[in-house]
UniProtKB/TrEMBL annotation:
Protein name: 3-dehydroquinate dehydratase
PROSITE patterns: DEHYDROQUINASE_II (PS01029)
Species of origin: Devosia psychrophila
Function: Catalyzes a trans-dehydration via an enolate intermediate.
Pfam families: DHquinase_II
Amino acid sequence: MKPIYVLNGPNLNRLGKREPAIYGTTTLAEVEQICRAASGQRPVVFHQTNSEEKLIDLVHEAIDEGAGIVINPAAFTFTSLALLDALKMFEGPVIEFHISNIHKREPIYHRSYVSMRADAVMAGLGAKGYATAIQTMLGMVGDRS
């Protein structure tokens, strides 16, 4: 059974400490536990990186190994055409996930390059919303392996 890739971009390693009024107090380690618990029998590959290059490499890995991608690209959402190009090569479903409601924030956060490829976009559910993203992805990948 192919895994779901959960990929997290820059500064998400600081969850729980970084702007808790926006991102809450849940840590990235807790997010990983949430994802693994929500996935049931489906394996999860969970990564965080502050590097655009590494995030693209992880998408490339998912192209070869993954059933679906849940991605919180953080700031790369709004800046990275290279990430968009990598995601366009992935044939399975992609969910773009944001902890905060990016549309309620400053205008610079309103244009997502990743949304041009994503099959679904989730925003504003908080860190615990990763469980909803995983459950949705399970339905999207169905019995594909």
